[in-house]
Amino acid sequence: MGVSKIAAGFLVVVLLVLLLQASRSEFIEPRPPPAPGQECEGQPIVVNYPYQGGLLAPHACRVQCEDNVQRYIVYTNDMATQCDKPPSCLDWGEDKGVTCKPKEE
Fold it and tell me: Is 59 within 8 Å of 92 (Cβ atoms)?
């Protein structure tokens, strides 16, 4: 009977700690969608395949995980999509089907 009371007390403490952490955690605001024709941000990543909409492989924005530099992907059909903001390295624009305007160079 003593062990079950200790176990129940432990579970109550764990539950309280989890509730406290959940109530104090910061929420990450979702990235707002870019305006139509918005210029891409950061440095270009030029890939050797066309953009055809939707999820594509490989994961081109992964270089952001290593150096925290904002980038965007430029495809062979002159379209571009924005990588997520560092420290994330997701192919955000590609995954969401949102294009941006490549910077003039």
Answer: no
